[in-house]
Design goal:
five-stranded mixed β-sheet, mainly beta, four-stranded antiparallel β-sheet, 9 strands, single chain, globular
Length: 82
Amino acid sequence: MKTLTATILTADACLYDGPAAAAFLPGLVSPFEVLPGHAPLISVLEPGAVRLVLDGKDAFSVRIRSGVARVSGDKVTVCVEI
């Protein structure tokens, strides 16, 4: 099974850096899901939950106040304020 490389960052720390089968992000227009092979994008994030899934289970979850997500290739990088 193909996976993403997911990195979740704050100004002070790296909260998560590892594999994920899917990332669920609270986009400004609407929530969205990132899977391996997703088209490149940059999106502003609104308050909500950033959730990473691996092997059918939550691998990581955090509530955010705001953020920015970048998807390039099979890598998703999310910079957040919590």
